[in-house]
C-alpha cells in the first residue's frame, strides 16, 4: 500500500508542477479519441446507408454500377464518371450471357420537382425501373398495381409513388388515376408503395417510379443504369463472376485491369459489383 500511495503522491505532485503540460496532454488525448469516434461513426453510417439501400432488394441480389454508392472523397466520383456508362444493352448482354442469373433488372434515378394542381414537392427522387424489378424489390405495392412489361414496351406514362407524395400532394384523396406533372411531362399514378421511413435522415418515401423506357425518354437515353441481379444462394458467386465477365468483355478489359471494389471503397475502376447483405 505504501508503494501505491507513494506513486500516487508523486503523480499528483508532477501534475501540480506541470499543469500546462498535463492539460495539453489531456486535450490531445481527448481530441484524438473524439476524432476516432467521429471517423468510425461516419464509416458505420455510410455502411448502414448502403446496407439499407440494398436491403430493399432482398437476399441473393447484387448490383452493378458505374459509381460507388457511398464515398467520402468527391474525387472518386469525378474519376468514375469518366468511365463508360452502363446502358440497356449491357443489361441485355448480362441477361443473355449469365446462366446463373435468375432475374436481371435495371434502375436509374435523378431528382425532380413534382406537381399536382397548385401543390409542389421539390427534391423528389425520380427513378426508372424495368418491370421485372417487381421480382427483385422486396417493397410491396400498398395500393394499386406495379407497371407491367406491356407498360414498358408501349412507353406508357404511368408511375408509382411513395407515402411522402401521398401526404403532400394527395392528402385526403385517392391518388390512383391522378396525374403528376414533372416539368413538361405528365405521369398517371397507378400505385402507391408501402411506407419505408427514413434512413440516416434521408426520406425513403419521397419518390416516383416509372417504367425505365419512360424515364429514359424524359431524362435522356444515355443515362447510366444500375443493373440489379438476383440469383440463387448456390449460384450467387457464379452469377457475379459471369456478370463481370460479360461487362469486362464488352469493355475490352484485359486480365490485369481491375473492375471491382468493395462497397464504398476509395478507388474507381470501370464498374463495381456490390453484394446485398
How would the blueprint of this fold be written?
Elements: H1 2-17, H2 19-55, E1 61-65, H3 74-80, H4 88-97, E2 103-116, E3 119-129, E4 141-144, H5 149-153, E5 158-161, H6 163-169, E6 179-182, E7 185-193, E8 198-199, E9 202-203, E10 207-211, H7 212-219, E11 226-230, H8 236-250, E12 272-275
Parallel strand pairs: 3-10, 5-7
Antiparallel strand pairs: 1-11, 1-12, 2-3, 2-11, 4-7, 5-10, 6-7, 8-9
Helix pairs in contact: 4-8
What features would you describe in this structure?
- With 277 residues, this protein is an alpha+beta fold.
- It has two domains: 2-52; 56-275, no CATH class.
- It contains eight helices and twelve strands.
- The strands form two sheets. Strands 1, 2, 3, 4, 5, 6, 7, 10, 11 and 12 form a ten-stranded mixed sheet that branches. It has a two-stranded antiparallel sheet with strand order 8-9.
- The chain is extended, with a radius of gyration of 25 Å.
- Residues 260-270 have low confidence and may be disordered.
Amino acid at each position: 500500500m505504501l508503494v501505491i500511495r507513494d506513486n500516487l503522491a508523486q503523480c499528483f505532485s508532477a501534475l501540480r508542477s506541470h499543469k500546462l503540460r498535463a492539460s495539453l496532454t489531456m486535450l490531445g488525448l481527448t481530441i484524438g479519441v473524439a476524432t476516432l469516434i467521429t471517423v468510425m461513426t461516419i464509416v458505420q453510417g455510410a455502411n448502414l446507408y448502403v446496407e439499407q439501400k440494398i436491403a430493399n432488394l432482398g437476399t441473393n441480389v447484387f448490383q452493378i454500377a458505374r459509381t460507388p454508392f457511398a464515398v467520402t472523397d468527391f474525387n472518386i466520383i469525378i474519376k468514375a464518371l469518366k468511365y463508360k456508362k452502363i446502358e440497356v444493352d449491357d443489361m441485355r448482354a448480362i441477361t443473355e450471357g449469365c446462366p446463373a442469373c435468375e432475374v436481371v433488372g435495371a434502375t436509374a434515378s435523378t431528382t425532380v420537382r413534382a406537381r399536382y394542381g397548385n401543390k409542389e414537392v421539390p427534391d423528389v427522387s425520380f427513378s426508372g425501373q424495368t418491370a421485372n424489378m417487381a421480382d427483385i424489390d422486396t417493397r410491396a405495392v400498398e395500393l394499386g398495381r406495379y407497371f407491367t412489361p406491356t407498360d414498358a414496351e408501349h412507353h406508357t406514362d404511368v408511375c408509382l409513388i411513395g407515402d411522402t407524395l401521398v401526404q403532400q400532394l394527395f392528402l385526403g384523396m385517392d391518388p390512383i388515376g391522378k396525374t403528376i406533372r414533372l416539368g413538361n411531362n405528365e405521369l398517371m399514378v397507378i400505385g402507391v408503395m408501402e411506407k419505408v421511413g427514413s434512413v440516416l435522415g434521408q426520406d425513403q418515401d419521397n419518390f416516383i417510379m416509372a417504367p425505365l423506357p419512360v424515364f429514359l425518354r424524359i431524362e435522356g437515353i444515355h443515362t447510366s443504369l444500375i443493373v440489379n441481379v438476383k440469383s440463387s444462394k448456390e449460384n450467387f458467386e457464379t452469377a457475379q463472376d459471369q456478370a463481370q465477365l460479360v461487362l469486362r468483355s464488352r469493355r475490352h478489359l484485359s486480365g490485369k485491369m481491375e473492375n471491382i471494389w468493395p462497397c464504398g471503397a476509395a478507388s474507381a475502376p470501370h464498374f463495381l459489383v456490390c453484394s446485398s447483405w
